[in-house]
Write a structure and sequence with these properties.
The complex is a heterodimer of chains A (443) and B (536).
Chain A (H helix, E strand, L loop, with lengths): L1 H11 L1 H18 L8 E7 L7 H20 L7 E7 L5 H14 L4 E4 L3 H14 L3 E3 L12 E3 L8 H11 L4 E7 L2 H16 L7 E6 L7 H10 L6 E6 L5 H10 L9 E3 L4 H4 L11 E4 L8 H14 L8 H20 L4 H7 L4 E3 L5 E3 L7 E3 L1 E5 L5 E5 L8 E3 L13 E4 L5 E5 L4 E2 L5
Parallel strand pairs in A: 1-2, 1-3, 3-4, 4-5, 6-7, 6-8, 8-9, 9-10
Antiparallel strand pairs in A: 10-14, 11-12, 13-16, 14-15, 17-18, 18-19
Chain B lengths: L2 H17 L8 H9 L5 H13 L4 H11 L2 E4 L4 E5 L5 E3 L5 E2 L7 E2 L4 H14 L6 H14 L5 H10 L3 H17 L5 H14 L2 H8 L7 H50 L7 H22 L7 H23 L8 H23 L15 E4 L2 E4 H23 L1 H11 L1 H6 L4 H23 L11 H14 L4 H41 L15
Antiparallel strand pairs in B: 1-2, 1-5, 2-3, 3-4, 6-7
Helix pairs in contact in B: 1-3, 1-5, 2-3, 4-5, 5-6, 6-8, 7-8, 8-9, 9-10, 9-11, 10-11, 11-15, 11-18, 11-19, 11-20, 12-13, 12-14, 12-18, 13-18, 15-16, 15-18, 16-18, 19-20
């Protein structure tokens, strides 16, 4: 109904609107920086600065600006200065594709760092393939994808979800599982993988409860009561949460208010980091868990330096750092090294140079870009503490964490366990090991 | 729960009593144990807790409870351990000597859930003899959950001395839970235990009974099964009541969000898409008030919401008047343009807040009287939801009274019912328009104060309520406050009864479909205005 009305209005007074739009465009044009000189290389930043995802993505834009700034202080790359081109896809998935096209064709960027939600990534994929450019995607996601033009610096399910479940099984002796998530592609696929994994580990179907809620769900009373009921069957119960973004705050508040403590029913979350906790009264959350590949609280010299630079750059000593920021840090430095190795900014040469590039991560290990365009990452389980940071509870010594290679195609799903991605020797993103055929998205 | 720890901590309690008479003697093992906290290894922390429990040092109890509360910090370099006392003073944990500040290199001693349970149950076991009945009941509850056999003598001795009725019941239940799982308890004891647990009848009782292993004598297995099914039936009854309560609570939130819109849209007929942003401004006002209180007057924190309510009304109301004077008054009688203008305005307000406060969520704390929950039979009622329900009804009644009994209310009704007649009677209609819009916006601001307690305070706060608000107002009948009330509670209760059956996503879709069908049948909503006012 609403769109109908909007449409009517648009037709009613189109002339007036045209005039207004023209005014806005002119005003915007006045703010666009002057065209850069030829000896700079442009880097596209495709993160939402308005709309629902602005809460998470604005930080990533800032960290990219900081990384580019620092690289320029070191003299740029191959003797050329880097220049950031920031666009705002406004949490609007089709707009992501449009803005990506604009970055590549109009601004002629060499590489793009961007996207948060899986749906925005899926929306820009065809653009990157068609125009043959490079995208670095910094967020943990559901896997089941490997594209020649995309480098996934966030965690695949085997680098976050599966280790978290293993931890709960081993350390907390959990026997009953609630898989709670927001209703979209990442939680649904992750939960499918987890369900298959749990069943493979001998968990009965009766001991798994799956629950989906809409984006931004705020009334959690019924669901939390259900979880409480499910947890009172005499077996240790845990919640595996793929609840996304804003909905987490009322969820944890309700848990706290209904008196569910981490010692009774722990919640392990895959989308709750330092940034999300910053808007939260953490008292009722003590001891609930999160699984990530980076925590701000891990003490290494690299991390301390990164945090200090971040505070200096944002001029705010309280700004937190988080996992996707580290992913951009790793991704950006890998890109710089690959360009230096290829001695060119040409997309094809950089894509070929990237696999095998090694870059120290911020937690004391060295991550490597794999032939399937995913990277090796350490996996940490952290407990929420009172100041909104995390205590690492697994592994015992975070600095000696084992690096897990990212697996594009899950081994626990029927359709994907035979698939393999390898862009170095096989030149294929979904090679079937049984039929020995590439199923399509090859080069 | 390792039994030896409980035993250790009981010894510790004894040690504290002793220490009251004797001067503390600093033994080597105690200091070594405290030093282990600085190793930053969970196994060392566990050992340290065990050693502390058996040491005769009076500081031990304080250290263990500080560990639980995250007030214990350790420096892994110097191996020094610092304890922040509840009153903010810092002492060296090993010696008890006061320290000025904790060095930057020290960090809070880490706990994991396993250790936390370990410490929690141990401290819980210590409080069975506490002079405070509420603390004793809590301790008994934690024994009920863990049903640790070694606690039986302690429970028995506490039970013998107990005079408080509630505490006695709790001890009896804890005793029953232990006996039920005790290997060498007689069948008669076990049957009695099942009866006690059955009469408790809540989810924890159910958890205990279903957790019973299969190799029980037939009589006991039968009794347990019948107790389980009777508890389940009872709980099913209560869950209906619980759903009804959740429905009321959701209804009150919908009403609160919609009530301001019932004025601006319902009474004035302005399609106000910026209504949600007024709610958001109210929430941000709460945030600012709490921020000032946190930094300058921490003692007033529990009153922060009371202070925020009038301020939110003034802030949102003033902005409402400003919007009416500068934008909306030029658009009366042109609903489509109003819709577009207010929608644009909502984007402007969102971006303005995003620029001023940043895109991230802001932390708004719950005052102590709005945290936690209480049990009513088998229903858990959370205080924040209860207060919001009361608050909503209070706002509704005040608004109704205002419209009915004050001069401004009379003028508002006159202007909306027949503008020209009202003008000819000497009412300054444009002033009344501004005040009415201001009132609607101000009430939206108040709603923001309450919603900040259950939702995120972010620039998007308003967006998540605007659709629901319009739904409630249209469903209830435009122009009728009572319609909004009934509409909100109907939608809330219907939603909550659908949710357990259909799931949250399908439940919401079902509600939308039902509303569409309903509007087809009754386009003017539940309580349609009749008579001349309709055409005005």
């Amino acid at each position: 109904m609403l769109t109908q009305i909007t449409h009517d209005i648009a037709t009613l007074s189109r002339r007036r609107w045209l005039a207004a739009t023209a005014g806005v465009v002119l005003a915007l044009a006045a703010f666009t920086p002057a065209k850069a000189a030829d000896d700079t290389i442009k880097i596209g930043i495709l993160h939402s600065l308005s709309g629902t995802m602005a809460i998470s993505e604005t930080t990533l834009k800032d960290v990219m600006l900081m990384l580019i700034d620092e690289q320029n202080k070191k003299g740029g790359v191959l003797g050329k200065k880097l220049e950031a081109v920031v666009v705002d896809p406004a949490s609007n998935w089709p707009l992501f594709a449009e803005k990506a096209r604009e970055l590549i064709t109009k601004d002629k960027v060499s590489v793009v760092f961007g996207c948060w939600t899986s749906v925005s990534r899926k929306s820009v994929l065809p653009v990157f393939k068609e125009l043959n450019s490079i995208l670095f995607y910094p967020v943990q996601y559901e896997g089941e994808e490997s594209e020649r033009n995309v480098f996934y610096t966030g965690a695949a399910p085997n680098q976050q979800a599966i280790p978290a479940v293993d931890y709960l099984m081993k350390e907390e002796k959990v026997k009953r599982w609630v898989l709670a998530g927001t209703d979209y592609v990442y939680p649904r696929t992750t939960n499918k993988i987890l369900e298959a994994y749990l069943k493979a580990k001998g968990v009965a179907a009766d001991d798994i409860m799956i629950n989906y809620t809409p984006f931004g769900h705020s009334d959690w009373q019924t669901i939390v009561a259900d979880i409480k009921k499910f947890g009172s069957a005499g077996k240790k119960t845990a919640v595996v949460s793929t609840i996304n973004g804003d909905a987490n705050v009322p969820f944890y508040k309700e848990l706290g208010n209904q008196g569910i403590k981490a010692t009774d029913i722990p919640v392990v979350a895959f989308s709750v980091g330092e940034e999300e906790l910053a808007g939260l009264d953490t008292k009722p959350l003590l001891g609930h868990l999160a699984a990530w590949n980076y925590f701000e609280s891990i003490k290494t010299p690299d991390n301390a330096k990164f945090i200090k630079e971040w505070h200096d750059f944002t001029k705010n000593p309280k700004r937190t750092t988080n996992d996707p920021m580290e992913a951009h840090y790793i991704g950006f430095n890998m890109w710089v090294k690959a360009v230096e190795k290829a001695k060119s900014f040409d997309a094809d040469k950089v894509i070929d140079a990237l696999p095998g590039i090694k870059q120290a991560n911020l937690t004391g290990g060295v991550s490597e870009m794999l032939p399937n365009h995913h990277i090796t990452k350490p996996v940490f389980i952290g407990e929420i503490r009172a100041d909104g940071q995390f205590n690492v509870v697994s592994p015992d010594d975070p600095k000696k964490a084992k690096l897990v290679p990212g697996d594009a195609w899950s081994d626990y799903l029927e359709g994907s366990k035979d698939l393999e991605a390898d862009w170095v020797t096989l030149k294929c993103g979904n090679y079937n090991k049984v039929t020995k055929k590439c199923l399509g998205s090859g080069s | 729960m390792p039994a030896n720890v409980l035993a250790c901590l009981r010894t510790l309690a004894f040690a504290i009593v002793l220490a009251a008479f004797a001067l503390p003697a600093f033994a080597g093992p105690f200091e070594d144990a405290v030093g282990k906290f600085a190793n930053d290894e969970f196994s060392d922390t566990e050992e340290a807790v065990d050693t502390l429990a058996t040491s005769s040092n009076p500081l031990a109890y304080g250290i263990v409870s500080a560990l639980q509360d995250g007030r214990l910090s350790a420096d892994s370099e110097s191996k020094k351990v610092y304890l922040t006392q509840p009153d903010g003073k810092i002492i060296d944990a090993a010696t008890g000597a006061p320290v000025d500040s904790i060095p930057d290199s020290a960090s809070v001693v880490r706990l994991n859930n396993k250790l936390r349970r370990h410490v929690e149950a141990a401290l819980g076991g210590l409080t069975l003899q506490s002079p405070d009945a509420a603390v004793r009941i809590q301790a008994a509850q934690s024994v009920f959950k863990t049903h640790d056999e070694t606690m039986l003598p302690a429970i028995d001795s506490a039970l013998a001395k107990e005079t408080n009725k509630g505490a006695k019941l709790a001890f009896n239940e804890a005793r029953a839970a232990i006996l039920l799982f005790k290997e060498d308890a007689t069948d008669a004891e076990k049957l009695e235990a099942i009866a006690t647990i059955k009469s408790r009848g809540d989810q924890e009782a159910l958890a205990l009974l279903t957790g019973l292993t299969g190799d029980q004598p037939p009589a006991i297995a039968r009794a347990a099964a019948s107790a389980t099914s009777s508890i389940q039936n009872n709980l099913a009854m209560w869950s209906m009541a619980q759903n009804a309560w959740y429905g009321l609570s959701l209804g009150s939130v919908l009403l609160l969000a919609a009530i301001g819109l019932a004025i601006t849209f319902g009474v004035m007929g302005v399609i106000n898409m910026a209504h949600g942003e007024m709610v958001m401004l109210g929430a941000y006002t709460t945030f600012v008030v709490q921020n000032i209180i946190r930094t300058s007057y921490p003692a007033l924190f529990d009153y922060s919401l009371l202070i925020a309510v009038p301020l939110a009304f003034i802030v949102a109301g003033a902005i409402g008047v400003l919007i009416e004077r500068t934008i909306i008054r030029f658009l009366y009688g042109r609903p489509l343009e109003t819709l577009l203008a207010t929608w644009g305005l909502s984007l402007v307000l969102q971006q303005a807040v995003r620029t001023m406060f940043g895109p991230t969520n802001q932390e708004v704390g719950n005052p102590s009287w709005m945290s936690g929950a209480f049990q009513l039979g088998q229903i858990t009622i959370t205080y924040n939801r209860l207060w919001i329900l009361c608050f909503t009804l209070a706002v509704f009644v005040i608004l109704l009274a205002m419209l009915r009994f004050t001069a401004l209310g009379l003028e508002m009704r006159a202007v909306t019912q027949n503008r020209r007649m009202a003008a000819s009677m000497g009412i300054a209609t444009s002033r009344v328009d501004a005040l009415t819009f201001g009132l609607g916006s101000g009430i939206a601001g108040i709603a923001g104060v309450a919603l900040s307690q259950i939702d995120n305070v972010s620039p998007n706060l308003g967006q998540s309520y605007i659709i629901d608000s319009f739904m409630v107002v249209v469903f209830g009948g435009v122009g009728n406050l009572w319609g909004t009330l009934v509409g909100a509670f109907t939608l809330g209760i219907a939603n909550k009864f659908l949710e357990p059956v259909a799931g949250a996503v399908l439940g919401k879709i079902a509600i939308l479909v039902l509303i569409i069908l309903f509007i087809q049948k009754r386009p003017r909503g539940l309580f349609a205005l009749k008579g001349r006012a309709v055409e005005a």
